[in-house]
Design a protein that fits this description.
The complex is a heterodimer of chains A (178) and B (650).
Chain A lengths: L6 H18 L19 E2 L7 E2 L9 E6 L4 H15 L5 E6 L3 H11 L5 E5 L3 H5 L7 E5 L5 E6 L4 H17 L3
Parallel strand pairs in A: 3-4, 4-5
Antiparallel strand pairs in A: 1-2, 3-6, 6-7
Chain B lengths: L1 H29 L2 H4 L2 H24 L6 H6 L6 H6 L5 H22 L5 H25 L23 H16 L1 H13 L4 H32 L10 H26 L3 H24 L12 H25 L14 H31 L9 H24 L7 H26 L5 H25 L9 H26 L1 E7 L4 E4 L2 E12 L3 E12 L2 E6 L2 E5 L4 E4 L1 E3 L4 E11 L4 E10 L2 H18 L2 H18 L1
Antiparallel strand pairs in B: 1-10, 2-3, 3-4, 4-5, 4-6, 6-7, 8-9, 9-10
Helix pairs in contact in B: 1-3, 1-7, 3-6, 6-7, 6-8, 7-9, 7-13, 8-10, 9-10, 9-12, 10-11, 10-19, 11-12, 11-14, 12-13, 14-15, 15-17, 16-17, 17-18, 18-19
The chains are: A alpha/beta (178), B alpha+beta (650).
Chain lengths: 178, 650
């Protein structure tokens, strides 16, 4: 037996090793160091009324969601309808964080697809995104009455996530004391 | 009661598969004729039992028997009959049952057509297939049983995923599985040949038609999936480099390499060990594809429910099958010598390069597909690899491949000279340069060098293929060509057509998202799109909106398109694009979202030149595969060998 005929087997075993490790990992789950921590501070204007400033402190006392989106993000388009349906459940308001986007593009995008947001917060430079640890769009944060981040969804929210993860969590958070 | 019969048949099939896997292989090793004789009846019985199981599950779907969990989760009384049937393979459990059924169907076919095989070889081939089937059936029964009951029975089913309620997707999985599973046959031949210690040209000749058949189905399956994505997903894309798409494309590339390398092994007796390795590689990629799709280790737009216990099972299965095959290869391949010499300039070299490029492409795609997983497993973070990577590796690799098609087909076996090859390709070379440069300038909106490059390659493949056909036909006419020569020619012409489609669509497509109020016009690519408004739509298991768009060109009517937006019972919205297909262009209109009260809609409009040629090319390639495998030479040789064999034993 010559050693070179063992090469395919060797390469294959390495791949199997990686697959075995990969099996234990959830590709959709990216741990966020922010979960359980207070929501990072920002004070930003809204898209439709630049005079109005929103900050997490102002939203204390209610459970709310922050949905990071941008008109240039393809999967946000798919997610948008789900957000719309979630809002109709009336469980919690969703604030949009318009991330690194041009104002006209964002407005056109919302005009075309509908605007489910309680308010759209503008983060043109992306600094707030960095504070919040956003590394891909869309991302969705759940913030409780005390202003603590309780969950983070990376990638588009779908109906399954709404049903199995968001709705039970928000029901629970709504019952907590502020 | 009927589901229990199916369940019972499934369990019996597992037992039979185990028998089929063990007795013939041990019998062939020890020389026990009675054990060897088990192979054929066991293979046929296994097929029969799986047919019963599949029929029972289909019956449960057609009767809307919601006491079966799988039926309740994937069907609905209001689902049209045809989709009730196709819902059988609409989700994980049923598609695995289809996988197993197709494997047993291929195996049973081997028992019918493989009459020229020696009994020992036949026993080993069926034994290997039996072991593969055992693994799959165990997976099916222990982790993904489609016959599990639901108590109490559901009143109504959850309905089939609306994405799958489409004729393209009714046919896509069976075709794809025919291809995936079909590669089990050359794999089994390779393993059997190694077990028997006889790796010769006969082994390659047996494997060739089976490989071509599997490849043909896989080609059709992938093309159907791409065509479906194009008209159903509503944004006009036809390939996304998604992990699940890659999972089907990798065995296709490896299978293409295998087909070509089998030709060399059969005709010239060269590349023996390499061909065996490719056969293992191709089937391993089919299994890996199943693992990737079913285990959820990678994120994919194909949102299949994933389950770690299933993933672990498939991984163990994959490790056992591929690991033991490669161990066998390591033990046996060193004894296989190809005592065939060939010159540097020869068809062998061209085919060797073809294999190298195809394998490098496959490995690049494999790397890109697994890279996020590897990085994650090393704890180095989360990344995703997207189309830019795949396009950057795939496109440059296909250019030398297209050039090789021309050179390889005109080159002689064993030894050739550059002068001779040049004499043959001179005319096609000049003609492809001229036609390729002129075409985008004359027939398209504007000239680009990329388009010219693509068209030169396409014409090069076409003209060299025509040149080869002319050479073959010299002295005996076109009718004198064998089916496998026609098959080769069509396969390559399919590649040319495919290159035309990809090049022109990706460079010249026009697309725009526009806001249209009823009565609005929009002009694009010389066409005028008039939005007439929308009407309400009532389907069997959906409601929706239907738009009407009148298209004219220079004042003359072209067509009227009715794009739809459907809301299915499951709550999932679906886009049905309105498409006016054409040989040189598709007009594609999809409804986005309603905008405001004045009846305005976001409408997506595309003009996609030559997009059909992508699937047309795949169809022509598949047709080439059919012609090749129908070549009578395989049957004539088979009969001759059979007679020789009969003479030996008499």
């Amino acid at each position: 037996m010559k050693a070179r005929y063992l090469i395919p087997l060797g390469v294959f075993l390495v791949i199997v090793g990686f697959l075995a490790v990969g099996l234990k990992l959830d590709p959709k789950k990216v741990p966020s160091p922010l979960i359980g921590k207070p929501a990072p501070h920002f004070e930003l204007p809204t898209l439709y009324d630049p005079a109005e400033k929103i900050s997490p402190e102002k939203l204390r006392g209610k459970v709310w969601l922050l949905n990071v989106f941008a008109s240039w993000c393809v999967s946000c388009r798919a997610e948008h309808r789900v957000i719309g349906r979630f809002v109709q459940l009336g469980l919690a308001p969703v604030y949009g964080l318009n991330y690194k986007d041009a104002e006209t593009d964002a407005k056109a995008w919302l005009a075309q697809l509908g605007n489910p947001y309680e308010a759209v917060i503008v983060d043109r430079e992306g600094n707030t995104g960095i504070d919040w640890g956003v590394y891909g769009v869309p991302e969705t944060f759940v913030i409780d009455k005390k202003g603590i981040i309780r969950d983070k969804i990376i990638g588009p929210v779908n109906d399954e996530i709404v049903r199995d993860r968001l709705v039970p969590l928000i029901r629970k958070l709504n019952e907590e004391q502020g | 009661m009927i589901p229990e019969i199916g369940h019972f048949a499934l369990i019996l099939a597992l037992v039979v598969a185990l028998v089929q896997g063990i007795f013939p292989i041990v019998g062939a090793h020890k020389g026990w004729a009675s054990w060897v004789a088990v192979a054929k009846p066991a293979a046929r019985l296994q097929f029969l039992l799986l047919l019963v199981a599949f029929a029972a599950l289909s019956w449960a779907f057609l009767q809307s028997d919601f006491s079966v969990r799988y039926v309740a989760e994937n069907s609905n009384t209001r689902l049209p009959q045809i989709f009730k049937f196709s819902a059988v393979w609409g989700a994980h459990e049923g598609s695995l049952l289809l996988w197993a059924l197709i494997l047993s169907a291929w195996t049973a076919t081997v028992t019918l057509f493989g009459r020229s095989l020696s009994p020992l070889m036949m026993a080993r081939v069926l034994g290997v297939l039996g072991l593969v089937a055992t693994g799959f059936l165990a997976f099916l029964i222990f982790t993904s049983n489609p016959f599990t009951r639901l108590l109490p029975a559901a009143m109504e089913g959850r309905d089939l995923n609306p994405l799958l309620q489409d004729i393209g997707l009714v046919m896509h999985p069976p075709m794809l599985y025919m291809g995936y599973v079909g590669f089990a046959i050359p794999f089994a031949f390779a393993i059997a040949a190694m077990l028997g210690g006889r790796l010769d040209a006969a082994w390659a000749r047996w494997s060739r038609p089976w490989t071509q058949a599997a490849w043909m189905f896989l080609t059709l399956g992938i093309a159907l999936g791409s065509w479906w994505a194009y008209y159903e997903l509503g944004w006009g894309g036809w390939w996304f480099w998604d992990p699940v798409e890659n999972a089907s494309f990798m065995p296709w590339l490896a299978g293409t390499a295998l087909m070509h390398s089998l030709a060399v092994t059969e005709k010239r007796g060269a590349f023996k060990a390499w061909t065996v390795l490719l056969a293992i590689f191709t089937f391993s990629l089919s299994l890996l594809g199943t693992f990737l799709v079913r285990s959820g280790v990678l994120t994919s737009v194909h949102a299949f429910a994933s389950d770690p216990s299933r993933g672990l099972f498939i991984l163990l299965f994959l490790a056992t099958v591929v690991g033991s095959s490669l161990a066998l290869y390591a033990a046996r391949a060193s004894k296989v010598r190809s005592h065939v010499r060939f010159a540097l300039v020869s068809r062998e070299t061209a085919l060797l390069l073809n294999n190298v490029i195809l394998v490098v492409t496959t490995v690049s795609i494999l790397l890109g597909t697994l890279y996020p997983l590897i990085i994650d497993a090393l704890g180095a973070g989360k990344i995703s690899v997207g189309p830019p990577y795949f396009n950057a590796v795939f496109i440059p690799l296909t250019i030398p491949l297209a050039i090789l098609i021309g050179l390889g087909t005109v080159a002689r076996w064993k030894r050739d000279s550059l002068a001779h090859i040049w004499a043959k390709v001179r005319l096609p070379f000049v003609a492809s340069l001229v036609f390729g440069l002129v075409f985008p300038a004359v027939a398209m909106a504007h000239f680009t060098w990329k388009a010219a490059l693509g068209m030169v390659l396409a014409f090069w493949v076409l003209f060299t293929t025509v040149r080869v056909i002319r050479d073959y036909a010299r002295g005996r006419g076109l009718g004198g060509l064998s089916l496998s020569q026609w098959g080769m020619a069509l396969g390559h012409i399919g590649v040319a057509v495919f290159i035309v489609g990809i090049t022109l669509t990706s460079i010249y497509s026009l697309e725009e998202d526009v806001r249209l109020v009823p009565g609005d016009h929009y002009r694009m690519g010389g066409y005028d799109f008039l939005f007439k408004g929308t009407t309400h739509l009532e389907g069997p298991n959906y409601q929706g909106t239907r738009g009407e768009i009148v298209i004219t060109k220079d004042g003359r009517p072209v067509t009227v398109l009715y794009p739809e937006k459907r809301n299915y019972l499951t709550g999932m919205p679906m886009t049905e694009a309105g498409i006016d297909p054409g040989l040189t262009r598709d007009l594609f209109v999809a409804l986005g979202e309603p905008l405001g009260a004045d009846g305005a809609w976001a409408v997506r409009i595309y003009v996609k030149p030559y997009v059909r040629w992508i699937w047309l090319g795949a169809l022509i390639m598949a047709l080439g595969g059919i012609l090749s495998l129908s070549d009578k030479r395989y049957r004539v040789l088979a009969r001759r060998e059979q007679r020789a064999m009969a003479g030996e034993t008499a």
